[in-house]
Amino acid sequence: MKNKVVLLFLGCALLGYSQNKESKNSVKIKPKAEFVAELLSKMTLDEKLGQLNLPSSGDFTTGLAKSSDISKKISEGKVGGLFNIKSVEKIREVQKLAVENSRLKIPLIFGMDVIHGYETTFPIPLGLSCTWDMNLIERSAQIAAQEASADGINWTFSPMVDISRDPRWGRISEGSGEDPYLGSQIAKAMVNGYQQHDLSKNTSILACVKHFALYGAPEAGRDYNTVDMSHIRMFNDYFPPYKAAVDAGVGSVMASFNEVDGIPATGNKWLMTDVLRKQWGFKGFVVTDFTGINEMIDHGMGDLQAASALAMNAGVEMDMVGEGFLTTLKKSIDEKKVTIERIDVAVRLILEAKYDLGLFEDPYKYCDIKRAKTDIFTSNNRIEARKIAAQSLVLLKNQNQLLPLKKSGTIALIGPLAEAEENMSGTWSVATKKGTSVTLLNGIKEVAGKSVKVLYAKGSNLDYDETFETNATMFGKTLHRDARSKEELLSEALKVANQSDIIVAALGESAEMSGESSSRTNLEIPQAQKDLLNALLKTGKPVVLVLFDGRPLVIQDENNTVPAILNVWFAGTEAGYAIADVLFGDVNPSGKLTATFPRSVGQLPIYYAHKNTGRPLSNTEGKFEKFRSNYIDERNEPLFPFGFGLSYTSFDYSNIKISSDKMNVNEKLKVTVEVTNTGNFEGKETVQLYIRDLVGSVTRPVRELKGFQKVNLKKGEKQTVTFEITVEDLKFYNTDLQFVAEPGQFDVFVGGNSNADKKVSFELTK
């Protein structure tokens, strides 16, 4: 008994606070290096391995945490953190188990998939990227951190920065599109929004950049599938956003499921140690994805002990769910397959993260019940979400200025996505509460006002196939399938349409038709909805297509027949209001695509920064040419290029100038262009600068984004936009993976999308 008392006293003295009382004020403790070293020296091997274990909570019911299966492991010091647990009450209860029942009183870290907002949900990340506004993107992450931290969460598995150039891959919805430069800017903005440059704040949370690496380039667009590419392509096209997040100080990195150079990323030492730590200087910890270690068994890397040792030796510190570290590493140490020194490094990194979060000073830092009641899903946060969502919408077509709609007359709102509250938040919106999102029907009614009569009909189900619809509406994202026949649904829709002045068709994907494990081979709108749309067009009424999606779709038919198309992604809890704000012109659309829309799925993968072949197509009309690099049945170019997006006004680019036609490595060039609002509305335009390296030691893309500015112009206003080019903008990785800028000729293009045609040129000299 006396020994137990001494141990308890030493544990409390070491941590510097009394664990028997929930501290309201932080207690000063020793500097991080000294504190962590002392704590590490007191730990048994079992306790060390416990810090590397990240099980899923299963989301405890308050009051039952002590009787759960995991409580014993927490009390024994065999758990380093938990995820998928929500609310201050539950987290406080579980934290008590760690800081009152375990020997060394080490607090837990609590993670959650806070991907695009918490209870206040913002557009899916692909939609958010289409704002091209880093301040808005950072602000969305900051609000998400404030809300999540108020509910006890201190770690998010975001941002996802995987470059994707193949929209068959469902998780393109969770990233920022196809471009490494833009993706890098967004990665930095998200990290800064979550971490706020100061993890000691109780409103900041630890970010986790994912999925390292190359997860967005699986063969055939099929999730979790093999990835195989050259190192030069990795470094030039896919690695930059991960590195940008590391440079921004991201606290953690998540390993990807796919293999890299034939070795799964979770066990890839070149990736996790040579690149991430030695080349990029990453100082945080690496966590696996869900059962990532266990899945290496199916990859063919050996049994759980072998896979766990492989991951640990590669540079992975925390095991999500699989418990391979917890159950096998002791044996691997005995067999000298893993060293205790490597274990100590891993544990130190986990403890340092907890120290940085302030959990040793106050384990209940994120358990303020007052904040939980006042800081989540606030009216101010919803106002900001509505504004940000409106900036993410992309106007793809507006024939004869059909939009904006007038706030008068009768509108027929038709389609399975018109009154689909559960789907507005999009995929990976795990904290969104049912019943809080604004539908398009409600948004239009409120924004339009009493002078507009709004008639509604569902018109069709998501798809004719009920099984497909079930698979596409998982996790509570039901569309409440209508049991009536397709003829009855269509008849009702046509009756409503014929009573209207204009038809708004709310069609496209359901929220879970994109996202994890939602790969598609057919990227068109489901046939049931295509049939509905064609019937609506035959009425002769003007039709506006409000297109919901989580990826670029193949909409060539719709583009040929529908006069106006507004791509709205899934815009979050305030989606209905934001979409209506744009439809009625209260907000002028300014979103620009961050992923190319193909003409056909057969073009995939498709992206603007492609390489030329030795036999490029010689005509610009897309005509077929034998023995040239083209299709016999389709044009080469996309339906909508990267960077594309219309406005209710129009912009003219003129008078492009460059400060000099020569530049050495120590100089800078300025490129200026005049942008004039030539339409009838005030509007925002994202001015984009692209560079082409005409001759290189390795082949170079036809153009690469190197700068952008979003400017607001009043009707008739002209503004000179200035870009600065430095040698850093001209660098790339050569065959020796050296980051170099080579002397030679460069073309510079400026305009409103990746087809920008205003050009100047210069020469880089030695």
Automatic annotation (TrEMBL):
InterPro entries: Cellulose_Degrad_GH3, Fn3-like, GH, Glyco_hydro_3_AS, Glyco_hydro_3_C, Glyco_hydro_3_C_sf, Glyco_hydro_3_N, Glyco_hydro_3_N_sf. It catalyses: Hydrolysis of terminal, non-reducing beta-D-glucosyl residues with release of beta-D-glucose. It comes from the Bacteria. The keyword Signal applies. It is an enzyme of class 3 (hydrolase). Its main location: periplasm. GO terms for biological process: glucan catabolic process. One of its GO terms (molecular function) is beta-glucosidase activity. This is Periplasmic beta-glucosidase.
